[in-house]
Design goal:
Layout: E1 16-19, H1 23-33, E2 37-42, E3 46-50, E4 58-61, E5 81-85, H2 88-100, E6 107-110, E7 114-120, E8 126-132, E9 151-152, H3 155-159
Parallel strand pairs: 1-4, 5-8
Antiparallel strand pairs: 2-3, 3-4, 6-7, 6-9, 7-8
Amino acid sequence: MDEKYVVPAQTRIGHVHLKVADLDRALAFYCDLLGFEITTLYGSQAAFISAGGYHHHIGLNTWHSKGAAPAAQNGVGLYHTAILYPTRKDLAVILNRLLAANYPLSGASDHGVSEALYLNDPDGNGVELYWDRPKEQWPSKPDGSLEMYTHALDLEDLLDELT
């Protein structure tokens, strides 16, 4: 292990698989509200869902968690699942859906490289909905490294994408 290994640039996170307490409730959130599509069901215990016909971006199951309490906020585990939208307008569309459904946000941030909405799914799992600015617009420090930050996201400006 003398030579440093660097993961290939084309590597991507393929999917996330979440333990949920109630599959129907999770499907209502991820499919009915966020708009993912069911690709397959495993009885009443598990579902795979996706965007655009991919085999699955998110797996949901109750195999070890049926009826369990929400995920603990102050404990180890997944901080959030980040869902990348292709455009700023797409992020505005989902914000509009969330507002129309009176679904609570836990935050909204401009990170310089991206703009993000934060919320929790019905099981208390963190969810980030975001879009990336074009790479050439990413802020950088004098040494060329990224200058990421967390500023409040102007939600009204984001919603202006819909007009």
